[in-house]
Amino acid sequence: MTAESPPVNSLPDVTSGPRSYAWWGMVWLILTESALFAMLIFSYFYLRFREPTWPPDGIDLPALMLPLIMGVILWSSSIPVHLAARGIKAGSQTRLRWGLLIGFILGTAFLILQLFIEYPQTWQEFTPQTNAYGSLFYTITGFHGFHVFIGLSISLWVQVRAWGGAFSAQRHVGVQSFALYWHFVDVAWLFILLTLYISPYL
Amino acid sequence: MTTLSEKLSESWHRRWGIAGWISTTDHKRIGLRYLYTGFVFLILAGIEALIIRTQLAGANLNVVTAEAYNQLFSMHGLTMMFLAATPVLSGFGNYFMPLMVGARDMAFPRLNAFGYWVFLGAGLFLNSAFLIGQAPNAGWFNYVPLSDATFSPGLNIEFYTLGIIFIGISNTTGAINFLVTAFKLRAPGMSLNRIPIFVWGEVAFALTIIFALPPLTVANLFLFLERRFGFHFFDVAAGGDPVLWQHLFWIFGHPEVYLVVLPAFGLVSAIVPTFTRQRMIGYTYIVLAEVGVALISFGVWVHHMFAVGLPDIALGFVSAASFMVVIPSAVQVFAWIGTSIAGRPKLGTPLLFVYGFIVLFVVGGLTGAMLGAVPFDQATTDTYFVVAHFHYVLAGGAVFPMFGGLYYWGPKMTGRIMSETWGKISFWLMFGGFNLAFFPMHIAGLLGQPRRTYTYDTGLGWDTPNLWSTIGSFILALGILITVINWFWSRRHGPVAGNDPWGGETLEWATTSPPPVYNFLTVPEIRSREPMWDQPELHDGYQSPEMGGRPLTGGHLTLATSSLDAAPQAKVHMPHDSIWPFLVVLAIVVFLYGIVFTAPMVVGVGVGGIFGSVIGWFFPRGETQEL
Questions:
Q1: pLDDT (tens digit, 9 = 90+) per residue, B237-270?
Q2: Nearest-Cα residue of chain A relative to residue B619
Q3: Domain of A100: which CATH number?
Q4: Taking CA atoms, what residue in A is nearest to B524?
Q5: How high is the ipTM of this complex?
Q6: Helix (H), strand (E), coil (C) string for chain A
Q7: Into how many domains does chain A fold?
């Protein structure tokens, strides 16, 4: 080991990806957050299988169109964010800035649809206080919406820095970590869609 | 070497005064803080226990009211678990993990400071409930429906749900920090199979936290929403189920009780080789056993629910899984015994605590195997037999190693050796008092005494064992008091320790006692699992460049290495001291009090404070930070 170890001064000052300890910090955060979502989904099925009919109390099966559209919007937002991270790795500030911005707009659209289109519709039929179904629905979707909000806040922070020219082909682990988190939030929606909207049809 | 230390001191200068104290990110100052605060809470929980024991000393006593009693035993359990055992073991990890792996700080120093402040804030928040006489009072596992709004209308459970979610943040950030430090900041040459077992113990601890804390957070979020906003998760009439709480709690709760003993096992594996002058036997098996215990702990939560009325098939599986825990636990016990037999044990105070721990842990393990059998468990559920069992496993399994760790690493942290005479007196009082306090509880339990009972009638055969328990608990407390006095006396008057008073084998002994801010003059290169025994060139935190030492001057730097082989990858620019973590926590505490007392203005101030201080924390300053 001693012989081939490079001398300290030749070591890089910045790293990215799995070589960076910051990247690993984000990976562990995502793992613990995944456990949070898993426990929410566990609770959903635990209470669901106690009921003879689901949704209970004459509540209609969830409408699928809107959550699917929201899903397409959110998942497609991963593409520009991915391209942004790829772009800065190749040294392109333009791809970084525009990719982040488009991702941010799509994420915001998702939140707006959830808060101002979906919730007002469902709220007329059931609220969190109606029964366990309502409580689970709003808690789990709301919890996910909160994560989108956090993701957007991080995006804002990364964008401010991106426009200030803080990132480069070498120094961009901040972008990568944000991209990881954003992809995680998107994948979480897939599981929520399958659990809350599709599984009641089965 | 002088110029080297001057250069490093310049980059790693330590700020004093109140601002420096609040904003420090030095893992050693934070680690010590965790230890001091954790021990203060330990003493607090001890006082609560003594009041409980006084109340139970005889039949029909009336030392405290039934309501006060409920709060005392609930807070005793909560404090011991969340505010004493976990933080003290985190504190040892904080102080010693970077030293043992040859790093200059934890991976995320400001997050580390944040974790401590959250722990302190949550501890004060929970205990402040005593001031209005409304501390949590539904036991540490806080079952619904007892803890729902109908049966617990006060603010007690609000303090519980919010306090527990809050302290979970501290545990999670701490765990991420431990994992990244252990896997990215090790000294060159410290490949996976050379990581000290204590570090492995902290890794198993952190892994468990990453996956075990979320169910607790979810359970408390549900309960909070149900109590405050009329949601339904546990209310049968509206499609909820109280057993959901039990599942969520114990999916967390069982890993939690193991995560308290995992780093304690690691601590024992640090003390044993030093005091027996023998390399640890079965290193690979111990490491696998540590991680194995962590894994199995996720499959046994239902054994806390044997009396709930679950399907037999589930009970059978969980019972089998519970017996499996015996295997990795026994592997470690045999490794400690084997190492002692192969070596030449020198019975210093740290080793005494280790042997005391082994005896108590094995007794607790035996009753654990008894409780793993479903019929026996159903007969003894919620009796003092269970209380006796988990005190042997937890207090024996975690508290004794913690005290051993204090005597073992105290000299490194203070620069002075603690009194051996008083240490031994303290040990024997603690060991004797412990057995006198907790062994009779087995008998009281088999005679039917239920746990958490506030008082009892005479003539049930419970009087004598309870009296013995009370006497024992005061002897145990005296033993602890002696160590506390010993600590403060020795740190002023004890013999000077020097770098390596015990002839230890791991890297923390290579540097001075206490270590400088930057830990090591040169980041060492490791060629052995026991570097201090095999690399005589390591002394005073210095390894000459010819032998592989790296001075790494010219900034606030440490070395990042690859996860498996610890091959050097990059220089890491560590962030400087920051006051923002403290301010974020302050704002969170304001926010929580606002919620508890339903004060929208205060909530608003808290939320604004959180946003403001988070922005302050992350505001780009053009420092040489990687992010």
A1: 999 999 999 999 999 999 998 889 999 999 999 9
A2: A157
A3: 1.20.120.80
A4: A2
A5: 0.95
A6: CCCCCCCHHHCCCCCCHHHCHHHHHHHHHHHHHHHHHHHHHHHHHHHHCCCCCCCCCCCCCCCCHHHHHHHHHHHHHHHHHHHHHHHHHCCCHHHHHHHHHHHHHHHHHHHHHHHHHHHHHHHHHCCCCCCHHHHHHHHHHHHHHHHHHHHHHHHHHHHHHHHCCCCCCCCCHHHHHHHHHHHHHHHHHHHHHHHHHHHHHC
A7: 1
